[in-house]
Amino acid sequence: MTNLAAALALLFLTHAAPSLPALRERLLARLGVRAFRIAYSLVSLAAVAWVIQAYAGAADSPWVWSPPLWARWAAVLAMPLALWLVAVRLMRPPGKGAAWLYRLVPAPASAGILLWALLHLANVGQARALLLFAVFAAIALFALVKNMLTAAPVAGSAPDRVGYRPAAAALAVWAALLALHPLVIGPDPLAWLALPG
């Protein structure tokens, strides 16, 4: 678990540190834009690879608790909202629609990822998974708070229309995740619905 904790600490730092304005400006001034992007990409990939290796190596980590049944309901029913928040950010960037949402949540993708991480935290009991999703939640929360503090106000004349496409995309991804989760990731999100006997 020590190896996994160190890997996740590096993953958090690769997301948090470069987004701090003062540090980012110093790195850009010293490295230049191209070299900064290359270095950042390499360090990020190395951190992800380390997390994957360390997570696999912590397969024998203890179970901390047994997730309650309500958490399974919450994950299945709330995931479309998390996916919709991410889809809105990708398909309706600031100034292109959903002005009301950006006034409420300046970083909807970070809010969606935070919700995704919290839903998973409520549904995992093994120590390695709890640590993994806790760090994902911390990364998303850091980005959300930073954007709330630094985002420019959304103009009142910005378009408010979201449209159906983000919702359609979110539902499509949700259905795909329900179908593919047991095949690609392992646990079946709907296994608890099976009746006994």
From TrEMBL:
The subcellular localization recorded is: Membrane
Q: Does the keyword Membrane apply?
A: yes
Keywords, sorted A to Z:
Membrane, Transmembrane, Transmembrane helix
Please give, as recorded in its UniProt entry, the membrane topology of this protein.
Answer: Multi-pass membrane protein
- What GO cellular component entries does it have? membrane
* Chief localisation class: membrane
Q: Which part of the chain is the NnrU domain? A: 4-189
Instruction: Give the top-rank taxon of the lineage listed in the UniProt record for this protein.
Output: Bacteria
State which residue ranges cross the membrane: 70-88, 100-119, 125-145, 166-185
- Whether Secreted counts among this entry's keywords is no
This protein's name: NnrU domain-containing protein
Q: Which organism is it from?
A: Minwuia thermotolerans
